[in-house]
Amino acid sequence: MKTDVIVLGAGIVGVSTALHLQARGREVALVDRGPPGGGTSYGNAGLIERSSVVPYAFPRALTLLLRYALNRSSAVRYDLRDLLHVAPFLMRYWFHSSPRNLQTAARAMLPLIEASVTEHDQLIEAAGASDLVRSKGWIAAFKTPRRFAAAVAEAETTAPLGLRMTVIDAAGFGALEPSMRTGTGGVSGAIHWLDPKTVTDPGELTKRYALLFEKRGGRILTGDAASLAQSDTGWSVDTNEGALAARDVVVALGPQSGLVFQRLGYRIPLAIKRGYHRHYRLPDGVDLHHSVVDEEAGYVLAPMRQGVRLTTGVEFAHADRPVATGQIDQAERLARRLLSLGEPVEATPWLGRRPCLPDMRPVIGAAPRHKGLWFNFGHAHHGLTVGPASGRLLAELLTGETPFVDPAPYEAQRFH
What is the DSSP secondary-structure string of 179-212? Predict the structure, then answer.
């Protein structure tokens, strides 16, 4: 079998890349070991996060570092057995989180963040997926007045970017979310970010985009990315329908991207931030109308088709460690103080793996030492948000178009 481009990985980044290449006249095949939207793209908070213009940095405040060091925070956990394994990444992550380096990362990510809603809107309309998307923004909630005041001051610095937000006190938050606790022990104030959109089933959204790709003539095949091999004319990979060959191949495997680039000799410091989610049925008379982030505890409550999804912060542990319920159990206890969650839908929490790079931006573009090899991975917390935008950028680079953003900050060469 032959095609113009093979895209390895059928998550939101891979499917979006395939659609953009297809729209530019390329014959494209998507190859993954599982169905579209079944991996990392399935388990997230469902935020198309137009307002997150500053990446998630390594904390520098001593009080926060002490909390995390004691391993008592629901926002960040670590497995003591894996500290040596993750230490090199954490050191580089800390270095790139300095004020100056963080500004550099924010400037690099801003064009993709700015394009996130527009690029999604085009695909949502074409895929007939508007039933999965809400235009209510999301709410950052704070329980202590001091943290609330600091967040408002920080949010006001984004005014030059034209982000729309509303600052609301406890009464205003209660009007938006009457089932959630306010006042003493509850939410004392919040920021309602209005530009982002929320998705009630991120995995299903990726599947709808994949169905659009198939409708437009694309092929989706089950295959083994680790079988990728270079030939005189391009690349080939084994699939359930036989060997598939193409001149170009795009690695968009998220946390599994190392299966390819490491074997080809690239030393890209891709790491995994693990995270959990679980759905809950709300009791009669209890409702959640917006996605709400408890900024002080580091979890998200998001209304989904399966129920209210509780998502955790970050767990640093080896990717293959079994599920450890401590973090999500703690998040659940804290969440129940604000909202009367009912019984969980799943017997066990879902474990996901976020592909992260220490400088807080993805790798997008050509591999420097192999003709026809392209990278599009490492989107960390923003895969759903910038998947279509980064897919567009990769497609423009591969087809020789003038890219809509400067691709230099995302080049793989920055790690060599």
Answer: TS-BSTTSB-EEEEE-S-EEES-HHHHHHHHHHH
